[in-house]
Structure formats: C-alpha cells, structure tokens
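tool=predict chain=A
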Amino acid sequence: MTKNIPFLMVFSHLQQLPDKESSFMSACAGTNGINIPFQRRIRMENFDDGGLSTGPRRIEIYLPENYEETDERYPVIYFSDGGNAFSRPGATMAVDAAYDQLIDDGLINPGIFVAIGLASVASRLESFTPTTHRSGGGLGGYYRFISERLKPYIDTHYRTKPEPASTGIAGYSSSGSAAFIMAYTHPETFGLAGCMSPSLWSDHRYSLKLLTEGNGAKRPVRFWLDAGGGEYEMWGDVTSASHLLEQHGWIPGDDLAAYFDYPADHNFEAGAGRMRQMLHFLLRNSPYELERYQLVSATNLEAEKIDLSSGVRGIVGAEAWYTNGFRLTVPHPNLTLADTAIAVLDTHDPIRLHGVSQGETTISSTYHGYMASLPIIGCDPDNLVNYLPCPQSDIVPNASGSLTETFALPYSIDDTQQKTLARFGVSYDEAHVHIAVHVLDSTVIIEPGKLPWEQDAVEINIDIRPEEDIRTVISSYTNSLAFYLVPRSPDGLICIYDPETCGWTDALPPGIHGSCAAAPGGYNAVLSIPASEWRSRQGDPWKTFRLNIRINSVDVIGGPATETCWQIAWEKFLSPIGTGVFRRQ
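tool=predict ok
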C-alpha cells in the first residue's frame, strides 16, 4: 500500500528531522510518481489559515509505524501548542514516545497525531481565549481554522476516521482550557478532549460557566482533565469541572477522567509524565476495570499517615486503580472522619484536612464497593504559625542609593547552595506598610520587551486577609497582592497582578508606591502599600500579613531566568501553613 504525500513536504521533513526518524523509512510513491521514503513524522511549514485565525502555522503529523502497509483508517488527535508536542531536544510532552510505548504494550488503538504550531508566541493567548478581556478573543477563529481548513486537509490526505467519536483535541495550560471549550461547544467535531493543566480560571472562569450556566445536556465527548500539586488552584478547578460533568451524566472511568499528579509543577515536562495515562484513556482498546481503591497522603506519598502537625497541608489523594496499572483520581471522594475533634474536612475543598487538636484519628472512604482508610495525626493549629515581627518605623525606604544604611534588612533569601541572593526587611507607619529588598547581583540583565519574569526582577507576594484565612485557605495570586519590580531606569518597572483580568499591569492602584533601581552590588526594590488595605480586610488595628519574595535571576542576555523563593512558593501545596507571617509590633 502506498500513500501520496506532497514531495516538497517530505523533502522539508527529511532535511530537518534527526537521524532517529530516518529509521522509519520505506518505499512510498510521491505525487510526481517518484518513489520517496515513507516518514512517520511529516512537517508542513506555513500552513495557511485562510485568514480565520492568527496566521500560517507549522503543522507536524505523526503516523502509525505500519501506516503504509495497511488500508486501515485511524482516529486523529490534534495537539495545540504543537511545538512542544513531539520529542525533540528540550522540554516537550513527548506524545510520540508515550504513544509508541502504549502500542508496543498492546493497550491502545493506533492513531494519527497532528501538532498545531503557534502562528507566533505573541498570538498564543489570542488563539486560545474565547473573549477579549485578556487581549484574546480568537478561539472561535482558531476552531474554524481546525474544523474548516486543517481537519478537511488531514481527512483528505490521510486515512482517518473523520467522525467526532474518533477526533480529539488536546492541549496544555491555556491550550488545555481551549481544548475543553472547543470539545464541549463543538461535539459535532470533537468527541475526545485531552485537557492537561487547563487554565479553567481564565476569561472569568469561562469554561466553568459553560457547565453552570448552559443547559447542561450531556455531549458525546470523552474528557480527560488533570493538574499537579504545584498548581493546586488548577486542580481545584479540575475537581469543580469534573463534579459538574458528573452531574450532567458523564461517568468516571468511562467518558470522564480526573488525574491528580501530586508532585508536578506547571510545565511541559509534567505533561510528558502523564501523557501515557491520558493517551490510554482516550485511545484504549478495552474498557477500564476497577481493581482497587486507596487513600494516600498527597503531600508525602511515602507516608503511611497524614501528619497535620508538620504544618504541611493535609491533602487526601483518593486513587481508583484499574487494570494494567492505570489510575484515576476520585476528585470528590466520600470521606468520613472518625473523630472530628481531632481533624475536620475543609468546607470548600473536598480533600483537604484541618487539624483541630492533638491526637490521632482515621479518615475512610468507599468507592464502588471498595473501602479505604488512612490514619490522621492531629495538631494544635495555633502552634503552627511562627510569627515574625513587623516593627514600626518612621523611615521610608528609598531604592536609590545605599538602602542598607537606612533600612534594616534582617532576612536573607538563599539559593540551594546557601548562597545569599538577597536581603529584605519590613516595617510600617500609620500610612503604609513598607517592604524593601536588596538583591546581590554583579550582572543585572534587563531586556526591554521581555516579560518581568524573563529578566532580573523581584516578585513580592503579600496576603493581607484575616489571620484565620491565611491559616486555612491557600495563598495565591487570586487572593493576595502580587508585584513584579524590575530595575529599569529611572524608577523601575512595577507591575501588579490584576485578578479581574488574570494578567499583569503597570497601572498601580492609587496609594501604592514602588521603585526599583541599580545599587552598589546589585539593585534595590522598594514597595509601599497603604495601611488602609489592611484595615479594610482586618479592621483597625490590623494585625498580620503573610509575605513571600521570589528572586528572578538571568546570567546572560537571552539566557533563562532562574527563580529562588524565600519560602516555598505559595502555589505549591507543600508550602507549610503559617510560613512568612509577620505580626505588627
């Protein structure tokens, strides 16, 4: 069996792919009657979008190994963020490697994968967001590009199963939420959806509103939803979406899967780590069969108990294990505590525990006839917070000059080698709370046009909610003040995170002052926030706030930025309760 493949397309592919791909060659007839090598990976540069989206894109196609030897037709999964889909040097999701292993293991049906590149990095949000509030609004055009131009081309030139039940859309982060929206709103095109670490919070939680404000009728779509512990807020949104889908008729393990990747951060390597699980769910050749159910400590998988006295949040992982070693997560398990005088479940988070008093109890759960339990060690929550002093002072820090001679900087931010990268201090007066940071950096790299986190910069996060909220609800961008300070002349670039638009802006609210400037040995960053922000949330007199500081460092122009946090980053559920809490003196 031969396949007609445009000659120039394959020639371009042969020049650019590594030698590894050449091992898949076999005879194939080209459009000009020339025998050319069969290739599993085919690259098309500048595939025209017909003006429907943000411009021409690179398209890569990955075919089954024996594609040219059969007349078989195959399901197709389209991957957005296509430049990170297939194996290459650097961080990718390695879709091809996971697929080949599953085929070798005989666990899935063979398929075709189509990686859709970005028209440009700057156009990413425009392509993947449905409304315009984040400089987006191009998702409708992106869907039309796939459904009206790309999919018809693939269905015409390759042996596909074009029906929705055999057509999938997948993506990561923003493109993961785009996959969710496109599959849910266009089941006439997509019957499979791989939503990895989806940004369901974006566009004012547009994705979740589809489930709560629509008619809720079940669509013939199989959904995979996942997130990691380093992006715990995303996992919360995944559990909400999964719960709503269940209410509308989706069945876990059949056409709905939720997967909690406990240690994973928000990056493509994490996506690669669970790609095997996702592809198996979407392309499996036999139904899932439940074999066992268990509860684990999500923050310490080696532990046989959840120890709340350590200060690390108690998160319960409810695991449904199926044949062939595949597991899914039960996002809303039926959990019961034997003694609620020792610990209680969070009101809003169905898998999070709070200590009430010292002692030991047990948490248990049942799922489809299976029972599981886990011991719990309680704690006295009042003893978990190690308060640091915020002194009163009339000195207002100034980023210009020698900051350390006028403002106390008693706290150090050290890297993994215990090298001090920065020192900082806090104080307050009747009008403001002040935070001052001196960064030790002999080569400050500032690149106009770069995002703040892509160059030397200081990120300051301040949680000024009441003390009880700081102890019980995980701090994040959505419930704290978050700033980036970049040492650009004359006074630095100061950006604040805007939860309303889910983006960063340099339009500071009235009363907030900041500056960031070069200084001997590095640079200084100073932030002054009105005390009225505290009083509006805590009353007068205000009492506490939680602080974290992240140092971004770039060593050479164009090089990557490394991040060092004073405390464990708040977005990670390993961030202990009560770290970095300052109390007004």
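Residues 1-36 have pLDDT under 50 and may be disordered. The CA atoms of residues 259 and 328 lie 5 Å apart.
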